[in-house]
Amino acid sequence: MKKSLLALAVLGAFAGAASAQSSVTLFGIVDLNARYVKNGDVNVKSLGTDGINSSRLGFRGVEDLGGGLKAGFHLEAGLSPDVGGTGGGNGLSANVFFNRRSTVSLLGSFGEVRLGRDYAPSFWNLTVFDPFGTNGVGSFTNLITSSTSLLGSGAATLVRSNNSVGYFLPSGIGGIYGQAQIAAGEGVFGQKYAGGRIGYAAGPIDAAVAYGQTQILGDNKIKLFDIGGSYDFGVAKPMVQYVNIKSDNTGTTVIGANSGATVWLVGVVVPMGQGEIHATYDRYKGKDAFDGQKARQIALGYVYNLSKRTALYGTYSDIKNEGGTSFVVATPPSAVVDGKSRGAEVGLRHSF
After folding, report:
1. What single-letter DSSP state applies at residue 12?
2. Could you give the CA distance from residue 84 to residue 81 in angstroms, rounded to a whole number?
3. Which DSSP letter does residue 68 get?
4. What is the pLDDT of residues 228-247, one digit of tens each?
5. For the whole model, what pTM was predicted?
6. Which domain holds residue 120?
7. Section 47-54 average pLDDT
8. In a domain, 185, yes or no
């Protein structure tokens, strides 16, 4: 009997050691809101999602391999909590389960090597230096996307890349951070991607430069350059961002030869007790084949944190289109060329 108890104790010790060196976490966000959108003369009232954070369900884990080496994985599915849906598009299929991220990594003093479907480096500036985090009716990307393609180019890599290999610099190198990524097109135009991001964050300062290019037709590419920054004064955190998009396409897709656009943002986050005010002013201007196109967006929002995981929020956004643009704060209803787009949402977000 004593030997049996001793054996169980030893096995328990080994099990404890193994579990201490490995961990798996279940996490998620549920974000729902009452939304009103008016595009042109048509308006729609709906139950919307993702007003301040994207709804998701995920699993992530890490295993200590010893000698400072670790292995990790991250699987993350989008949620549509208004209808109980999961997953979404990935640029190749209309609905896959882990559409947000599905990666495996090797980590060490050298940094991190990451494989799979992941965020594109050129996307991070767009969201990090946007007071609305590229979510909801006030998102900065409202003036960058046309439907789901980057300015109608057919590129599926504005936010994420499939079949990617990425490298991240290690932490602790004087505030410098950065990453690089390549993604195989595997014979599908709009999927082949290469990009990188380098930045500096120390104290109240955070600034970064990012670049990404995607093959859209033959050897033609659409290129995105982004520089952004923020400074936390404590009483307010202003943010600025400048984006240059260029296509060298000579084919017959929506973007013609030598065309593109510049888009910029000036915004601020102002903490107020348990709440925060978010505000932005964004401008879009077309170039070359898009010359004469203009749009502006003004957005204002408030977030009240009931706890570290739960928040109430409200956002209002207004877009004015000129010269043939048709950007919207959300759909439905359908976009209207040179029409105004307005939207408001009041919602609740809970993370776990």
Report:
1. H
2. 5
3. T
4. 999 999 999 999 999 999 98
5. 0.90
6. 24-351
7. 98
8. yes
